[in-house]
Amino acid sequence: MCKAMEDMRNEAALRNSKEIALRMIKDGTLSLEKIAEFSGLALEVIKELAQQKTA
């Protein structure tokens, strides 16, 4: 049960980080590298989010 709760918490944290990163991408002020640094997400993930935004 604890493992399931931890997985759910991790998924929620990842989803939240992606949502915040997407807002930063839409703002356009920061580079993708800075967004990756500040969000704690991999640069590859940030690039994927940026491509989704433009698609």
Describe this protein's structure.
The chain is mostly helical and 55 residues long. The chain has one domain (2-54). 84% of the residues lie in helices and 0% in strands. It is built from three helices and no strands. α1 (2-27) runs antiparallel to α2 (32-39), α1 (2-27) packs across α3 (43-54) and α2 (32-39) crosses α3 (43-54). The protein starts with a helix and ends with a helix. The model has no long low-confidence stretch (mean pLDDT 92).
Question: What key phrases describe this protein's structure?
Answer:
single chain, 55 residues, mainly alpha, elongated
Short précis:
The chain has helices spanning 2-27, 32-39, 43-54.
Q: Order of helices and strands, N to C?
A: HHH
How far is the first residue's CA from the last residue's CA?
A: 39 Å
| The number of domains | 1
Low-pLDDT stretches: none
* SS content category: mainly alpha
Major sheet: size, sense and barrel closure?
none
- Portion in helices: over 70%
What is the alpha-carbon Rg in Å? 13 Å
By DSSP (H or I, 4+ residues per run), the number of helices equals: 3
Question: What is the approximate shape?
Answer: elongated
Count every beta strand, where a strand is a DSSP E run of 2 or more residues. Answer: 0
Mean pLDDT: 92
User: What portion of residues belong to β-strands?
Assistant: under 5%
